[in-house]
Amino acid sequence: MSIHVPAGFAAREQLAIEGCRIATGPSRRSFRIGLLNLMPKKEDTERQFARLLCQAETPIEMVLLHMACHESRNCGADYLRRIYRPADHAALETLDGIIVTGAPVEQLHFTEVDYWREFVPVLDFIRNTGLPALFICWAAQAALYRYYGIAKRPLLRKAFGVFQQHIMDGSSDMARGLGPVFPTPVSRHTTVCDADILRNRQLRLIAASNRTGPALIDERDGASCYMFNHLEYEHDTLEKEYHRDLACGESNGRPLDHAMSRIGTRIYRRSWAPAANRFYTNWVARIADSRKPCVEAGPARESAS
To answer: Which residues are catalytically annotated?
Structure first.
């Protein structure tokens, strides 16, 4: 299907070349999906999620959100002002669903993150209104902590690479078409204890790895889903993070590869692409089953591709 993005969206031409149907401006009839982008390189992250959302079977309008109190050092203020909206109640209440990205702050306690006080009302709005939400990596840990008091735990060594995930509960609609095993990129210093998930009757463990722990957690009766890993990553994202860590004085080693073969330059083939497309198609289908799309006034301008 198609995806509608804000005018001036940086990756519009690239995604159109890849075959995505891209439109700019509001959509007459589509699901409004918010992307609360907590990653430093926002243009990379928004491109990654837009690529996946355009594979869904329902038209999507992507609404880009950010933490207004946090000063981004890797994205221009003018771009943020033109393309993004603050993640306040006025923006959240217009959405049919929301994706909250990870953030490279997981080694801090949640309350030490500079935008935590602004982030908590977002989590509470999602919880109180039943807004369908997909939390990624750090955001998944933060939401589980806020909602269920589940603490994150440090890993002895950063989980970094591509790892096979095993389906533990195939009855979830989020597991449809993924199993029994699927690869995902992993990049984190922390995890949660699977026992904390299993003892909570409101949660169910959908997928996990014996190397990196829980991967996908779902709510039995709620609207939130928690993905600890990064199906959205591009073929070279892990390699870029390796060089970023080196520049910051961290020596985590090169990304491990337990799911696929490496090209000579250590740029990965995206063997996780089928699972990524399936996963996000499942998530949008879940929203379609539970909510009616918004009706927006004003025509959208389709790309020529």
So the answer is: 137, 230, 232
Q: Please, which residues bridge with residue 63 across strands?
A: 34
Confidence of residue 304 (pLDDT cuts 50, 70, 90): very low
pLDDT per position as a tens digit, 283-293: 999 999 886 54
* CATH classification for the domain delimited by 2-294, as one of 3.30.980.10, 3.40.50.880, 3.60.21.10, 3.40.950.10: 3.40.50.880
Domain ranges of the chain: 2-294
Tokens of 262: 């490496």
pTM check: above 0.70: yes
- pLDDT over threshold 90, residue 305: no
- Contact between 235 and 268 (Cβ < 8 Å): yes
